Amino acid sequence: MFDGPTTLALMARETSEIRVGTLVSSLYFRQPLTLARATMTLDQLTDGRVELALGVGDPSAGGPLAGITWSPAEQVARFREFVELIDLLLRQQVTSYDGEYYTCAEAEVIPGSVQVPRPPITIAAHGPKMLAIAAKFGDGWSSWGGYGVETEAEFCKVTAERCERFDELVAKQGRDPKTIRHSLVCFPPLTPWESPGYFTDMVGRFMAVGIDEFVFY
After folding, report:
1. CATH of the domain at 107
2. Domain interval for residue 204
């Protein structure tokens, strides 16, 4: 695939109104400081039209290519620091951070983003620990069925269960779940282009379980 921030810079030049962003920028390929600076720069270039989405990404296109062999536990722990540090870097011009996996000393992100307090962050998550990270830091949460989900009924069921679990975690953070976008990647076995009727029915079914944003390939 093309490089994310580079491609977004081209989109920024050729557009004036639509929002532009990634789904997702992965910790396999980005350091927090370089990604935060790229995001801030794009927010300036677009006059505040950038959306940032963070996630692990497709494992088959991540760790092996980058020569990384993190355990699942380490990956989640790294991701939490990755998100926390990017959140801080985009909120302030100078940041120092001393984590287990990521550190920085008086790192500058200047002049800062157009959007205040920072560009919106969507976090892709399925499991309990990842959902907790999204509940704490995210302006949006992104989900999809999963490679083992083979029927539409199962896709809807797991999505409903995740929505309920996510909303509980958001409430525990003292946040209102309605203020966080619940985004669904419409991945097979869903077939959104099948017909207008199917599309309308599909959107209705998932809105009923808590989804309010739909992403289509």
Report:
1. 3.20.20.30
2. 127-217
Q: How many domains does the chain have?
A: 2
Same domain, 11 and 54: yes
What predicted TM-score, i.e. pTM, was given to this entire model? 0.93
Model confidence pLDDT, tens digit, residues 64-102 = 777 778 888 999 999 999 999 999 999 999 999 999 999
The per-residue pLDDT for range 141-161, each reduced to its tens digit, is: 999 988 889 999 999 999 999
Q: What is the 3-state secondary structure (H, E, C) of the chain?
A: CCCHHHHHHHHHHHCCCCCEECCCEECCCCCHHHHHHHHHHHHHHCCCCEEEEEECCCHHHCHHHHCCCCCHHHHHHHHHHHHHHHHHHHHCCEEEEECCCCEEEEEECCCCCCCCCCCCEEEECCCHHHHHHHHHHCCEEEECCCCCCCCHHHHHHHHHHHHHHHHHHHHHCCCCHHHCEEEEEECCCCCCCCCHHHHHHHHHHHHHCCCCEEEEC
